[in-house]
Amino acid sequence: MGNNEEVKLLGVWASPFSRRIEMALKLKGVSYEYLEEDLEKKSSLLLALSPIHKKIPILVHNGKTIIESHVILEYIDETWKHNPILPQDPYERSVARVFAKLVDEQIVNVGFVSLTKTEKGREGLIQQTRELIKCLEKELAGKDYFGGKTVGFLDFVAGSMIPFCLERAWEGMGVEMITEKEFPEYNKWVKKLKEVEIMVDCIPPREEHIKHMNHMGEKIRSA
Amino acid sequence: MANEVILLDFWPSMFGMRTRIALREKGVEFEYREEDLRNKSPLLLQMNPVHKKIPVLIHNGKSVNESIIQVQYIDEVWSHKNPLLPSDPYLKAQARFWADFIDKKMYDAQRKVWATKGEEQEAGKKEFIEILKTLETELGDKPYFAGDDFGYVDIALIGYYTWFPAYEKYGNFSIESECPKLIAWAKKCLERETVAKSLPDPEKVIGFVSELRKRFGLE
């Protein structure tokens, strides 16, 4: 960590993918310049930095470009070594990585993309999503956070995506996905997250976000 | 403490091949167990209850799932020999990015090449070649994706090479004419014993794909 570090983050206010990077940078105490992107009108900087993928988040560190949120999180952890984000033990790390994939690939696809598209078969998709969240529920047993006593990689990935993004979408859809009764550990974890300054500082404002997620849902439906 | 390593796998799986290669690169003794995917073993169902998929790496009784995560795990546990990822965080990030790219794009695209027909197949072929060309550009003139050393991205991709003759046969096209540098890279990888031992005979893969196509009513 030095005073000559130049860190930029290109993101979108509503995107859990860039929000989780902000959480990580805050945990490490790294100063950065945040650049808000409009995905309907991508900046020339974004297109120059990521010509093939054209997506956010993009981290630029001393002129080096890193893309893909999981890749960025691991990069941040390896570059600024204090306040570790990933567990130290290789097995624990593999578990965190597997769950991160589960969240971003399966839970998002079944619980949002598919759910948004189908009118029929909704109950089935809701059940499938709950089954996946049950895996997270099990993982949280006996812990304050996924990271143990402090927040880490999976708290940032799952936190940015589920309670502070997908749950807002489900609320907008009128779906009660993760009840306190069926998912006590998960709900306890969310309450604890709301007490963590890094998390609270880095999540999108609720009402605007719900509107945004409804809008995204409409876009998917009409695609 | 003795290291007990078991790999639950399926011989044509381009994902299982990654883990086989990584274990061999590190000189790790492991027990290979062939799974019948239509009759999955109780151990597989117990060790990967969520997805019930291979490969499953079981190390001293604990399971690690997802091939690309297994390769990282193997690299971190047996860190004293043959590093599979660069040590520099930025180069490591690039390797992770490309392995993730391969993971996200290759499977669905290649599947369309042999498991569909007509317009869907043509679109699949086009997409598949574009992905290979992107990878070929990334490879450039380097011997391996990371430069001089065989590693993570090579491991993520090389298994697909054994399926190339099947794609060419059922897609009716030549991959070498589109991506000669990538073919040269693959042949170089195959000169490594760890890779040669871990990959099946492409003729066997063609036979396997033919069976699947019959099952799907494509022939």
From TrEMBL, chain A:
GO process annotations (BP): toxin catabolic process
Enzyme Commission identifier(s): 2.5.1.18
Membrane-crossing segments per the record: none
PROSITE patterns hit by this protein: GST_CTER, GST_NTER
Chain ranges of the GST C-terminal domain: 89-213
GO cellular component, one term: cytosol
Catalytic activity: RX + glutathione = an S-substituted glutathione + a halide anion + H(+)
GO molecular function terms attached to this record: glutathione transferase activity
Source organism, top-level taxon: Eukaryota
Location within or outside the cell: Cytoplasm, Cytosol
Domain GST N-terminal as annotated: residue spans: 5-84
Keyword Nucleotide-binding: no
UniProtKB keywords: Cytoplasm, Detoxification, Transferase
Stored Pfam families: GST_N
Major subcellular location class: cytoplasm
PANTHER family: GLUTATHIONE S-TRANSFERASE U5-RELATED, GLUTATHIONE S-TRANSFERASE, GST, SUPERFAMILY, GST DOMAIN CONTAINING
Function: Is involved in the conjugation of reduced glutathione to a wide number of exogenous and endogenous hydrophobic electrophiles.
Membership in a protein family: Belongs to the GST superfamily. Tau family.
Protein name: Glutathione S-transferase
Automatic annotation (TrEMBL), chain B:
Major subcellular site: cytoplasm
GO biological process assignments: toxin catabolic process
GO cellular component labels: cytosol
EC number: 2.5.1.18
Domain GST N-terminal: 3-82
Role this protein plays: Is involved in the conjugation of reduced glutathione to a wide number of exogenous and endogenous hydrophobic electrophiles.
Name of the protein in its database record: Glutathione S-transferase
Organism: Cardamine amara subsp. amara
